[in-house]
DNA sequence: GTAGGGTTAG
């Protein structure tokens, strides 16, 4: 665009120079801008006004082009920075998530104008800091500056995710102030309603905008809202309408449509759409690519496909990398790959942002605790914890999943502020560890502090009640959900209620829930009922639950295994054998039990009766000795838990020996051998802990004087001085 | 000189 050379500079009059710089700014032409900057230094321009004008505009240029360092030095060289260049540099810091520096600069502006306020509000909006954003809004009003659409969309964005009540208030404010004709404001309101789980309200905003009041962003936002609420066909209908109306369809639209397919788990539809996009070249776009990667990782579980998509992208951006990391994270077996991807991303020059950390930290929940510590250290070094509640939340969840409730609480107590997710993570952490009193106390605190609970909060609260048999409380919270907070219970809440009632022995009430719930019950609900039947020995209801379970998930071993062991316990051997035969014929395979433990940053894996570990002889010897002591302390092996192949005729002694070599016992024994007196032990298991192991480890904890924690697929069992944190209610 | 639409935690 700029054809000149520096020799022509003396001939370039200041106004032409100004115009050229303006052109650089509007076209974001960094290269030409830098050339102009070099000329500016050589020019020794004596006109003070023009010189000031130009200095200010160089700050704006660099800020817009995203080169923060250049922007800062241009800003520092400006003797009289005007409000324009202040605003530009504040925005640049905000875009780099350096809100505290943005704030410092804002405080230096002699007379901040509305744009200054808007810029800072949107910076707080980006990090969801409602308190600061609302404070600034108040200031704007006190100064009698006229609020505009930018102000409000920033404030709404900041308040998004803090409960629908706040959004309703803001919506009211918008209508009263006559801002409901601003597309941007309506778009922000629409999105906030959707994020809070209120699709109806989002839809209403969209409809009230009318065709003339909408812009492309409105359509895209509504498509995303539908996708998030699994209204995929509505999303697609909107997309078709957009095309029919001749509206511009861009990368955002494409990405939005993809979220609809993903939420519907409609892989085939998504793939067709992918094919169409290949024809139009959209598939090379990073925005669209992240939608595609999300689709393939969530619906196909195929990271291979994701990698193919990734390789097609012309200019991968940070979001694309984050989506890849998140894809690996969602697949528990690929947590290591998530970590690799995180490293690679940094290697090619991307600085991980809050999202990257959130994804990688949650992958660490499936890895050894020391990896989590390392990533935590990196987060501290990257200075990301101060600014991002989300990363702190992920750390709380990671530490509690890794069995380290103390560190989880430490982070929770030191984080700069709490939001709904923070409370959810901590409440769920306590619930998983069987500390329901702490869980419920925190929930009450949440209500006192006016932090709005959401669907996830209630899952944690209800599961805390279920884990400890607090039926009445559970029922109270279940009805509170809808009555007090307008939250519609989802399938998972019904599962919790079935679990709560079932475990407490109220089987018919649990059955009634499953029969009357407003969805078709899935395998989770039947599994909860089946588990309850096993606990309370109701074979007839168990058969019904198992049949339904198998109908939904024909290849899951759970219903077969549970039901056959129930038959065996009831002495109904023939039926137990028939079931096992059926299982074989149908090719249903039982997942082998497997436990792991980390010693000196190395993970040791044990499979039941596995003899491949180099120290296995020593472990067996140790267990033999331990068994003697255990028996003296009153341990009676519960051979019902020794699941044998039906054709094997086995003696009680053989069964006892098999029990002794269950994976969790081997891992615990290994831990006891390899660590010093008094060091707590953490073992992770891929299935639920077996009843005999539960009993045995209680006794081992007393004999060895150690704290032993087992994390199974349902919860934590923390054994100490002969007792388990679950108080045997599991 | 400033916004709202793609990825993320429980």
Give the CATH class of the domain at 403-585: Mainly Alpha
Q: List the total number of helices.
A: 38
Backbone structural class:
mainly alpha
- Poorly predicted tracts of residues: none
Q: Evaluate the radius of gyration.
A: 30 Å
Strand order of the largest sheet: 2-1-3-4-5-6
Q: Would you tell me which CATH topology of the domain at 403-585 applies? A: Serine Threonine Protein Phosphatase 5, Tetratricopeptide repeat
General form: elongated
Q: How much strand?
A: under 5%
What is the arithmetic mean of pLDDT? 89
CATH architecture term of the domain at 403-585: Alpha Horseshoe
The counted number of beta strands is: 6
Summarize the topology:
Layout: H1 14-27, H2 30-43, H3 48-65, H4 68-77, H5 83-95, H6 99-108, H7 114-126, H8 130-142, H9 149-159, H10 164-176, H11 183-195, H12 199-213, H13 216-228, H14 232-244, H15 251-264, H16 267-280, H17 286-300, H18 303-312, H19 318-330, H20 335-347, H21 354-364, H22 369-381, H23 389-401, H24 405-414, H25 420-432, H26 436-448, H27 455-468, H28 471-485, H29 491-503, H30 507-516, H31 523-536, H32 539-552, H33 558-569, H34 573-585, E1 594-599, E2 602-607, H35 616-632, H36 652-660, H37 663-674, E3 681-685, H38 691-704, E4 708-711, E5 716-720, E6 723-724
Parallel strand pairs: 3-4
Antiparallel strand pairs: 1-2, 1-3, 4-5, 5-6
Helix pairs in contact: 1-2, 1-3, 2-3, 3-4, 3-5, 4-5, 5-6, 5-7, 6-7, 7-8, 7-9, 8-9, 9-11, 10-11, 11-12, 11-13, 12-13, 13-14, 13-15, 14-15, 15-16, 15-17, 17-18, 17-19, 18-19, 19-20, 19-21, 20-21, 21-22, 21-23, 22-23, 23-24, 23-25, 24-25, 25-26, 25-27, 26-27, 27-28, 27-29, 28-29, ...
The structure holds one DNA strand of 10 nucleotides.
């Amino acid at each position: 665009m700029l054809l000149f050379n520096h020799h022509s500079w003396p001939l370039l009059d200041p106004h032409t120079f100004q115009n050229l710089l303006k052109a650089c700014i509007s076209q974001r032409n960094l290269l030409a801008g830098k050339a102009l900057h070099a000329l500016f230094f050589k020019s020794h321009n004596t006109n003070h006004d023009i010189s000031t004008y130009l200095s200010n505009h160089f700050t704006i240029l660099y800020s817009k082009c995203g080169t923060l360092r250049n922007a800062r030095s241009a800003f520092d060289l400006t003797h009289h920075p005007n409000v324009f260049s202040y605003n530009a540099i504040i925005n640049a810091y905000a875009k780099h998530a350096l809100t505290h520096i943005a704030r410092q600069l804002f405080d230096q502006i002699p007379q901040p104008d509305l744009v200054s306020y808007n810029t800072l509000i949107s910076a707080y909006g980006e990090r969801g800091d409602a308190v600061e954003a609302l404070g600034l809004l108040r200031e704007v009003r006190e100064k009698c500056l006229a609020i505009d659409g930018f102000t409000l969309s920033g404030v709404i964005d900041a308040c998004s995710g803090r409960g629908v009540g706040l959004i309703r208030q803001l919506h009211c404010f918008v209508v009263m102030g006559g801002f409901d004709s601003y597309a941007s404001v309506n778009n922000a309101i629409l999105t906030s309603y959707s994020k809070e789980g209120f699709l109806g309200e989002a839809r209403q905003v969209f409809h009230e905008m009318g065709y003339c009041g909408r812009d492309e962003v409105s359509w895209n936002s509504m498509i995303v809202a539908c996708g998030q609420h699994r209204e995929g066909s509505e999303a697609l209908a909107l997309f078709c309408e957009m095309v029919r109306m001749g509206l511009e369809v861009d990368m955002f639209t494409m990405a939005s449509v993809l979220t609809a397919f993903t939420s519907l788990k409609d892989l085939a539809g998504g793939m067709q759409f992918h094919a169409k996009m290949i024809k139009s070249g959209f598939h090379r776009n990073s925005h669209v690519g992240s939608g595609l990667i999300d689709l393939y990782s969530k619906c196909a579980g195929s990271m291979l496909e994701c990698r193919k998509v990734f390789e097609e992208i012309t200019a991968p951006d940070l979001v694309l990398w984050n989506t890849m990391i998140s894809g690996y994270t969602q697949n528990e077996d690929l947590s290591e790959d998530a970590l690799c991807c995180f490293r690679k991303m940094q290697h090619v020059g991307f600085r991980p942002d809050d999202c990257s950390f959130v994804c990688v930290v949650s992958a660490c929940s499936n890895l050894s605790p020391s990896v989590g510590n390392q990533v935590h250290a990196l987060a501290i070094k990257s200075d990301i914890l101060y600014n991002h509640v989300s990363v702190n939340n992920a750390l709380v969840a990671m530490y509690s999943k890794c069995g380290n409730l103390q560190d989880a609480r430490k982070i929770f107590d030191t984080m700069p502020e709490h939001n709904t997710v923070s409370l959810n993570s901590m409440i769920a952490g306590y619930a998983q560890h069987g500390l329901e009193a702490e869980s419920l106390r925190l929930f009450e605190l949440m209500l006192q502090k006016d932090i709005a609970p959401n669907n996830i909060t209630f899952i944690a609260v209800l599961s805390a009640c279920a884990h400890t048999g607090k039926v009445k409380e559970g029922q109270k919270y279940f009805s509170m959900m809808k009555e007090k907070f307008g939250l519609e219970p989802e399938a998972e809440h019904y599962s919790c209620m079935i679990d709560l009632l079932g475990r407490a022995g109220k089987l018919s009430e649990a059955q009634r829930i499953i029969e009357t719930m407003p969805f078709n019950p899935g395998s989770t609900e039947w599994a909860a009922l089946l588990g309850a039947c096993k606990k309370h020995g109701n074979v007839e209801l168990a058969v019904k639950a198992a049949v339904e379970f198998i109908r939904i998930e024909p290849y899951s071993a759970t219903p077969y295994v549970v039901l056959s062991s129930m038959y065996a316990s009831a002495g109904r051997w023939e039926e137990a054998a028939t079931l096992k035969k059926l299982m074989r014929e149908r090719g249903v395979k039982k997942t082998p039990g497997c436990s792991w433990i980390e010693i000196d940053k190395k993970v040791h894996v044990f499979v039941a009766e596995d003899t491949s570990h180099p120290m296995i002889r020593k472990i067996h010897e140790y267990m033999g000795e331990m068994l003697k002591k255990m028996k003296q302390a009153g341990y009676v092996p519960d051979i019902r838990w020794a699941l044998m192949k039906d054709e094997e005729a086995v003696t009680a002694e053989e069964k006892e020996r098999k029990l002794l070599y269950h994976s969790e016992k081997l891992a615990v024994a290994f831990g006891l051998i390899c660590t010093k007196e008094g060091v707590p032990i953490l073992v992770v298991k891929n299935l639920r802990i077996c009843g005999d192991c539960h009993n045995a480890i209680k006794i081992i904890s007393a004999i060895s004087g150690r704290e032993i924690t087992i994390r199974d697929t349902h919860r934590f069992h923390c054994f100490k001085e002969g007792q388990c944190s679950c108080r045997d209610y599991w």
